[in-house]
Design brief:
By secondary structure, the protein is α+β, with helices and mostly antiparallel strands. The protein contains five helices and five strands. It has helices spanning about 5-10, 15-60, 80-95, 95-100, 130-140, and strands spanning about 100-110, 110-115, 115-130, 145-155, 165-175. Strands 1, 2, 3, 4 and 5 form a five-stranded antiparallel β-sheet that branches. It is elongated and about 105 Å long. About 10% of the residues are buried.
Length: about 180
């Protein structure tokens, strides 16, 4: 049986030469593994991401569908027909297309000539949940006639905190 004083004496002994070499060797192996796994892999990921960023910078950005530029003179393919403008008015105010949106106010101006096109001003106020308003806005992107939004504001309803009020004003463009 080993006594406690014998163990203490063995612990106080200096390590032998081969134990020192084994310890230093293990320390080197562990250090190399840590450096390789942490630093080297991170460096490779960073260089891969930098090359992806550079390749994305070379590709021209694609504007989202909702951001449409105002029509320029001679750009007929962008502009809806007079019938498409009438259909768009009908779609904007028909309850079948509003789903869970409540249309509280709508105003349409008389058509007027603007830059070689007919423009009709639109003003809407709708109420609904966030998800419903999001669907309605995405629905506006696919109207038969282009709707250019001049201003859009969304506010929380003073009556019900779960309901949002959206005020939208813009113009519908049609061919002469």
């Amino acid at each position: 049986m080993i006594k406690l004083p014998d163990i203490m004496t063995q612990l106080r002994q200096k390590p032998a030469g081969r134990e020192k070499i084994l310890f230093v060797g293990m320390l080197l192996v562990i250090s190399v593994l840590v450096v390789r796994s942490c630093i080297w892999d991170s460096h490779q990921r960073i260089s891969t991401l930098q090359s992806e960023i550079e390749s994305l910078k070379k590709v021209p950005p694609v504007p989202p569908k909702a951001v449409k530029k105002a029509p320029e003179k001679g750009e007929k393919k962008w502009v809806g027909t007079a019938r498409a403008v009438e259909d768009t008015f009908e779609i904007l105010i028909t309850s079948a297309h509003l789903h869970s949106i409540k249309l509280t106010n709508h105003q349409f101006s008389q058509p007027r000539q603007e830059g070689g096109y007919m423009k009709e001003d639109v003003s809407l106020t709708v109420l609904g949940s966030y998800g419903a308003l999001e669907k309605y806005i995405s629905y506006l992107e696919n109207m038969p006639a282009p709707l250019v939004i001049d201003s859009l504001s969304i506010k929380r309803s003073s009556v019900d905190r779960d309901i949002l009020s959206m005020d939208l004003s813009g113009g519908l463009y049609g061919a002469n």
